[in-house]
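Researcher: Please generate the 3D structure of the following complex. Treat every line as part of one assembly.
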Amino acid sequence: EVQLVESGGDLVQPGGSLRLSCTVSRFTFSIFWMSWVRQTPGRGLEWVGNINPDGSEKYYVDSVKGRFTISRDNARNSLYLQMNSLRAEDTAVYYCATDSGYLDHWGQGTLVTVSS
Amino acid sequence: DIVVTQSPDSLAVSLGERATINCKSSQNVLYSSNNKNYLAWYQQKPRQPPKLLISWASTRESGVPDRFSGSGSGTDFALTISSLQAEDVAVYYCKQYYSPPHTFGQGTRLEI
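Model: Done. Output below.
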């Protein structure tokens, strides 16, 4: 069974930075797109962005463009989300997911809290 | 950006009865070259990540009970649970993947 494990969530002050990681196992990571999705407490899901297999193509939701960067290391079966200039509204559980267009495998999520 | 709107926001259905959740996209998500609708349905239970139920608007994922079905094309879609079971209590989301940014509906809370 495919396994995705996110890490790196923490409490951070507004304006701060954080890097999330997602390690994938039992899956041919290097040939698939990957996505980040977030969920604010008590609210719905928001697609944050995705990255193609070789990392050359990336897309983001407008609210994070210029602040967040998705990257990957295929040798380490790992996906990353670098988050800069964090705002209170970025507080959420962040999920990574395998992306075939539809998101077929998800991690359990990691909580990011932006607060002073 | 494509806006995806679900209705209703919440729904209460009796055990064994039919439940239908609607999803409307602000733009067509049917890709004419392959005749596929770029629309998926997810189920999320408390304290769990979302689970993919249906892709391409109507293709049920392996292991998903056949009481779940997806229908629709273009801009209007529906998820139907033919005979509600207790374990189906959850929040259901549709999501378009026709063009980035991919967008989710706001979710529909299904209760008994």
